[in-house]
Design brief:
The complex is a heterodimer.
Chain A (H helix, E strand, L loop, with lengths): L5 H12 L4 E7 L2 E6 H17 L7 E5 L4 H12 L3 E5 L5 H10 L2 E6 L2 H9 L9 E4 L13 E3 H14 L3 H8 L5 E6 L9 E5 H15 L7 E3 L7 H13 L3 E4 L6 H8 L3 E3 L2 H17 L2 H22 L6 H22 L6 E4 L6 H9 L4 E3 L1 E3 L3 E4 L18 E5 L4 E6 L10 H6 L1 E2 L2 E10 L5 E6 L4 E2 L5 E2 L1 H9 L4 E7 L7 E7 L1 H10 L7 H5 L2 H16 L7 E6 L19 H7 L1 H7 L5 E9 L5 E9 L1 E2 L1
Parallel strand pairs in A: 1-11, 3-4, 3-5, 4-8, 5-6, 6-7, 10-11, 12-13, 13-14, 25-26
Antiparallel strand pairs in A: 1-2, 8-9, 15-16, 17-18, 18-20, 19-20, 20-21, 22-23, 24-25, 26-29, 27-28
Chain B lengths: L7 E12 L2 E12 L3 E5 L6 H8 L7 E6 L2 E2 L5 H6 L2 E3 L12 H8 L8 H6 L3 H19 L15 H14 L4 E5 L7 H18 L3 E4 L3 H7 L2 E6 L2 E6 L1 H6 L1 H8 L3
Parallel strand pairs in B: 3-8, 3-9, 6-7, 7-8
Antiparallel strand pairs in B: 1-2, 1-4, 4-5, 9-10
Helix pairs in contact in B: 3-6
The chains are: A alpha/beta, B alpha/beta.
Chain lengths: 631, 259
């Protein structure tokens, strides 16, 4: 019996573990509901057969549009069982974006979460004629929808049961036909540059590369807990969430709502988890803010404990021997402070903890290391999956670790990272040219700038395209500075600007409303809106102080000389950020061109009249004046 | 829409109420029919809230009657009226601000609880089963109103818009057969209003119970109600479909004043 595809392994899990081992948990109506491997397999089988009875064919694509819920996993596995591929779409996509993904991928079905997503799909129904049915799994609010294109998840399962009665051996035959060359999933690139491209992932990628990863990091055979909440449309959740939990096997838990993740993490205490860089920053920010609000005694204890943790973390990172006295001190502070802190964060059992997608500030990695949590900041991409991975006990805050065993890395003369991979993607869908353009002499061009340390650790600095030259020809990475700025609890986002025509570096800052608001409260600064708060003298001074701190760690020529606090936050709905919250630099620079010009003039004030787009698509206007500040 | 005697759930006839010399309601007649969303609008002080207060027994009118399925409510106490299945929300949100959202909602189930205090304290056998059954119903409302993130939060710490939502959820937890909403969207921003309008429509679709909506926001009223009644200085000056009301001269005068 071949075990080349995820559905085949799912069948194997079902045979081995049946009803004895829990595969999934989902919190619903305040209670964790469990599904065993038997349940998982049966749902997949019936949903698959249901889709087939509705006309799904081998090689078809099915878009899935929803939050992390068991239904997403069932749907994806069902599609793969039939020899098709799942196309993940982010839930906050606007109808036009959804249209692009569904249309470009030639999807014949869409599986959608709830009324919100169904409404978006009905809006674009005419433009996606290939779609036969839109399946929804949460019927709330859809009771009176009569559009014939709609069908509920349970109805499809019902159809599947019927179909199984007529074709009892069909599902097994379908699984047996699966090969590791089959495309199992499409992950669209986030589109920092141009239109998103659909990277095709084969079953070989899903099964073999993730199995090697699991063996490398020791996830398997321990029935680890995993909390699924990063978007499954993203390759990382395809790997750790969908594939690894079947290969492990691991128990996947789904939070009740995206807003309850923090609570649910505590209830589950996952062993394996992935937080995007932002989340680690937010956690750190949250701890700092809570400590500011805490009682004097608690603050004192925390302030005494933290340097001990940091000191030991530094010693460990430097591969130095830790003196016995420090070991004892650390043991005491760990049990007195850090253990409780970890428990509060739901990280008490965390063993394999990851981040990727954007650089995490070394300070953050060092901070969590002090709590005994090693964040493995790996380097990966939609096309190549995981490329480097920090190894346990050898976590260095500034590097992304050495290459994984199945990947070879070298640098081009310009410093671009080049990849050879045993498990690469299968090219971009319907875009042979773009696929070819990425390959030079057998190496895949990542488009990232970085360098390798003497002992083979990779340091990724920035996208090649995002490196900026300054007057005088010196190169610098704005992103590098931005990340350090974001470590301040008062700065949520920053855009750092510099170019050959400009003689110094400047920045546009987004203040963090929560923490700056709290600061304003404590310092009796009255304010009305975000815009008003951002331009208060006290706040400008506060931000100046934060920038000075960051400037001290930077080379002379890359230091920020002038900045403004922006009157609004950068927003994905206005295309300023990608859906994974990365800054769209060129777009943003273009949008605020006038403001940037002012930063390089003698003016001290700038009057704005700008349009803003609200979540529901309506436009509003902001009129205000912005101070230009020198550092 | 033709009038017919069937399908009328609440019949308000000749209702008058005054405070000293102030005539709060003046001979108001109004029928609330099965399966409709009826909006009651009017300028400030028109007597909209007074009307709700008369229905659910906070005020007793000195003249006229409120008939609920042939039963006269005018002399009954508010808690009696609640057990008959008439639930309401409040303009100024009257929740137990020291309790969690969940406890507030469970408290609303109290009128359906049959076990006494002692078995409840011992939490044994039937009492336990009963509690679980009620919790399940409450959880369904929490799911409907998307309140999972605030389930365990103390109500006093919630922002205004969410407290309004808890208020509505509590009314719903009583499993009512008539729902009276007193300005459910007052003081909300556009996004919160849209959410609230969606919840009201969801509730209506799911339960198909008559909903009486007192509201200021004309856009919302026109969007979601089936019928509109207009009060001005305690008298009903118009009643009809939203479109008719929009063009009614008396209504325009009441809102904008005479030229």
């Amino acid at each position: 019996m071949p075990l080349e595809t995820l559905p085949q392994i799912l069948r194997e899990n079902h045979r081995t573990y049946g009803n004895k081992i829990v595969a999934m948990r989902v919190k619903d109506q305040g209670i964790w509901k469990q599904y065993t491997w038997e349940d998982y397999y049966t749902k997949v089988k019936h949903f698959c057969l249901g889709l087939i009875s509705l006309g799904l064919q081998r090689g078809d694509k099915v878009s899935i549009l929803g939050e992390n819920k068991p239904e997403w996993f069932w749907a994806e596995l069902a599609v793969q069982s039939a020899g098709g591929a799942a196309v993940g779409i982010f839930t906050d996509c606007l109808p036009a974006e959804i249209k692009y993904f569904v249309h470009h991928s030639d999807s014949t079905f869409v599986v959608a979460h709830d009324q919100e997503q169904v409404d978006k799909l009905l809006e674009i129904k005419q433009e996606i004629p290939k779609v036969r049915k839109v399946v929804y799994w949460d019927p709330k609010g859809l009771w009176s929808y009569t559009d014939p294109v709609l069908i509920s998840f349970d109805e499809v399962i019902g159809l599947g049961k019927e179909y199984e009665g007529q074709h009892p051996s069909l599902f097994d035959e379908l699984l047996d036909q699966g090969r590791n060359d089959d495309i199992g999933a499409y992950c669209y690139t986030s589109g920092t540059t141009g239109l998103p491209k659909g990277a095709m992932l084969s079953q070989r990628w899903l099964v073999d590369s993730i199995r090697e990863w699991g063996e490398l990091d020791g996830w398997f055979g321990k029935n680890y807990e995993y909390l699924s909440f990063i978007p499954p449309a993203w390759i990382t959740e395809q790997g750790i969430g969908i594939a690894a939990t079947i290969l492990g096997p691991m128990i996947t838990s789904f939070p009740e709502e995206p807003e309850t993740v923090q609570e649910n993490i505590r209830e589950i205490g996952p062993d394996v988890l992935f937080f995007a860089a932002r989340l680690w920053e937010n956690l750190n920010r949250m701890i700092q803010a809570r400590m500011i609000d805490s009682t004097y005694l608690r603050r004192l204890i925390y302030r005494l404990a933290l340097p001990i943790g940091l000191r030991v973390a530094d010693l460990e990172n430097g591969n130095k021997k830790i003196p016995v006295l420090w070991r004892i001190l650390y043991f005491l502070t760990y049990h007195a402070v850090f253990r409780q802190l970890r428990d509060r964060l739901g990280l008490s059992r965390a063993k394999a903890v990851y981040s990727a997608g954007a650089a995490v500030s070394p300070d953050i990695i060092r901070y969590f290391k002090a709590l005994g949590i090693e964040i493995r900041l790996f380097y990966g991409s939609t096309e190549q999956g995981v490329m480097t991975m920090p190894r346990q006990g050898d976590i260095r805050p500034e590097t992304s670790g050495p290459p994984v065993p199945w990947v070879e890395i070298k640098l081009s003369d310009e410093g671009e990272i080049l990849i050879k991979n045993r498990y690469p993607y299968e090219g971009y869908y319907k875009d042979q040219d773009a696929t070819q353009a990425k390959i030079k002499e057998g190496w895949f061009c990542s488009g990232d700038f970085g360098y390798l340390t003497d002992d083979g650790h990779l340091i990724v600095i920035d996208r090649m395209d995002d490196l900026k030259e300054l007057a005088g020809g010196k190169k610098f990475s704005p992103q590098y500075t931005e990340i350090r700025l974001r470590f301040s609890p008062y700065i949520k986002d920053a855009l750092v600007i510099g170019s050959p025509e400009r003689h110094y570096v400047t920045a546009i800052i987004n203040i963090d409303l929560d923490n700056v608001g709290r600061f304003a409260e404590n310092h009796r600064v009255a304010y009305t809106t975000f815009t008003d708060l951002s331009q208060k003298r006290e706040v400008l001074n506060l931000i100046t102080g934060e920038i000075v701190k960051v400037n001290q760690t930077l080379p002379e020529w890359t230091r920020i000389r002038k900045f403004v606090n922006l009157y609004k936050e950068f927003d994905a709905d206005e295309d300023e950020l990608t859906r994974t919250r990365k800054l769209r630099r060129t777009f943003v620079e273009d949008r605020y061109r006038d403001l940037i010009d002012v930063l390089y003039s003698d003016k001290e004030e700038y009057r704005v009249e700008a349009s803003v787009t609200y979540r529901d698509g309506r436009k509003g206007k902001i009129e205000t004046s912005i101070h230009v500040n020198e550092v | 829409m033709p009038h017919n005697a069937n399908g009328i759930i609440l019949r308000i006839s000749d209702l008058s109420l005054s405070f000293g010399g102030l005539q709060a309601l003046n001979r108001v007649d109004l029928d609330i029919r099965d399966g409709e969303i009826l909006a009651v609008i009017g300028p400030n002080g028109a007597g909209k809230t007074c009307l709700l207060n008369c229905i659910n027994g906070f005020y007793h009118p000195y003249e006229g009657s409120v008939l609920y399925r042939e039963k006269d409510l005018t002399t009954l106490k508010p808690h009696k009226i609640a057990t008959l299945g008439i639930a309401r929300t409040f303009q100024n949100i009257e929740l137990y601000s020291g309790l969690s959202t969940l406890d507030n909602l469970m408290a609303a189930r109290h009128i359906h609880m049959k076990r006494g205090a002692l078995p409840g304290c011992l939490f044994f056998g039937p009492a336990r089963r009963e509690e679980i059954a009620h919790r399940r119903q409450v959880e369904e409302i929490i799911d409907l109103m998307e309140m999972e993130p605030i389930r365990k939060k103390v109500v006093g710490s919630l922002p205004y818009g969410q407290r309004k939502r808890v208020d509505l959820a509590r009314a719903l937890c009583m499993n009512p057969s008539v729902l009276l909403l007193d300005e459910p969207m007052a003081g909300m921003n556009v996004e919160e209003k849209e959410d609230m309008a969606r919840f009201i429509l969801d509730i209506y679709e799911l339960k198909r119970i008559p909903i009486v909506l007192v509201e200021h926001d004309m856009d919302v009223v026109m969007d979601i109600s089936h019928r509109v009644a207009v009060l001005d200085f305690g008298s009903k000056i118009a009643e009809g479909l939203p479109q008719e009301i929009r063009d009614d001269e008396k209504v325009i005068k009441a809102y904008l004043g005479e030229e």
